[in-house]
Write a structure and sequence with these properties.
It is globular, with a radius of gyration of 18 Å. Strand 2, helix 3 (48-61) and strand 3 form a beta-alpha-beta unit. It has two domains: 4-204 and 285-314, Aldolase class I (TIM Barrel), CATH 3.20.20.70; 206-282, no CATH class. By secondary structure, the chain is α/β, with parallel strands linked by helices. 44% of the residues lie in helices and 15% in strands. The two termini are 22 Å apart. It has 14 helices and eleven strands. Helix 2 (26-34) runs parallel beside helix 3 (48-61).
Length: 315
């Protein structure tokens, strides 16, 4: 399949695996890249030396393109950028910050830059900053979320009208049917996170993977809106935050309740009670753990089937 995104990244399929903290190490990234998509290493949970090691291992595991996701609010961002440039990474996805800050430097070093947004105003800033493509992420997504609460169905066509650069749709996408819907809305590719967490290659704890495939409709909720909105599986920690917010707890109280390393505790260490369990709404449709390559092939097969069905409807 050839389109603006497959040409930009030099990949077979317009499927991007999200660079999720604690879940997206070299094993998952290389598996998705080897299957024809674009794998991303999630650097937000890594020290610079760990990131360097992950990049080296990914290069050894695949000869296909892969990238690194860099949250711009990361405290060691300068060191991360240095590692990425020194290791010759060719694709970087940035998020959680101003795309102007690093886009020029990255592009001067021959790196393709993509930025994640949740609203039209941020998409316009990305285009002005010179990024090569945008990830437009709807409110259904797992992890940190947009304050605008705009769903993917609404967000993608709005951004498609606003910018001319390629768009990668994210949020609530875990199947080929949903991928086809995203393309109908104006996307050139999809970024999928939750579905790839429930794989053997994911660096997430097995407890977290098991929790994902047991979720049902309504089991995730966006919380911590006073700090940074994040979608979580409802557990003991979520309920404590929810109760605090309902009684009008201050930002300092919420911050103290959050503490440190909650995401690591939940997703990487497997504490299903006290940890942050970041996952998208689509998790309620994920009912088995399967290899990343099988997921990529399944998504593409269902995508093509959907397009064929639509062609018969409109003919």
């Amino acid at each position: 399949m050839t389109n603006p995104i497959t040409q930009l990244f030099k990949i077979k399929y317009p499927i991007v695996q999200a660079g999720m903290i604690w879940c997206s190490g070299w094993e998952l990234a290389s598996a998705v890249s080897n299957a024809g998509g674009l794998g991303l290493i999630g650097s937000g949970s890594m020290y610079p030396d760990i990131l360097r090691d992950q990049i080296k291992k990914c290069k050894a595991a695949t000869n296909k393109p892969f990238g690194v996701n860099v949250p711009l609010l990361y405290p060691n961002i300068e060191e991360h950028i240095k590692v990425i440039i020194e290791e010759g990474v060719k694709i970087v996805f940035t998020s959680a910050g101003n795309p102007k800050t690093w886009t020029t430097i990255l592009k001067q070093n021959g790196i393709t830059v993509v930025h994640v947004v949740s609203a039209i105003k941020f998409a316009l800033k990305c285009e002005q900053a010179g990024v090569d493509a945008i990830v437009a992420e709807g409110f259904e997504a797992g992890g940190h979320n947009g304050r605008e609460e705009t769903t993917t169905m609404v967000l993608i066509p709005q951004i498609r009208k606003a910018v001319s650069i390629p768009i990668i749709a994210a949020g609530g996408i875990g199947s080929g049917y949903q991928m086809a819907a995203a393309f109908a809305l104006g996307a050139d590719a999809v970024q999928i996170g939750s579905r790839f967490v429930a794989t053997p290659e994911s660096s997430a704890h097995q407890n977290f993977k098991n929790a994902i495939i047991q979720t049902n409709e309504g089991d995730t909720q966006v919380t911590l809106k006073q700090l940074t909105p994040v979608r979580l599986i409802k557990n003991k920690f979520y309920k404590a935050v929810d109760e605090a917010e309902k009684r009008g707890a201050s930002i300092s109280e919420i911050t103290e309740l959050l503490g440190r390393a909650r995401a690591k505790k939940g997703m990487f260490e497997g504490d299903l009670d006290e940890g942050e369990l970041e996952i998208g709404q689509v998790s309620s449709s994920i009912k088995e753990i399967k290899p990343a390559a099988e997921i990529v092939e399944e998504i593409m097969q269902d995508f093509k089937i959907t397009l064929s069905k639509l062609a018969t409807i409109t003919s």
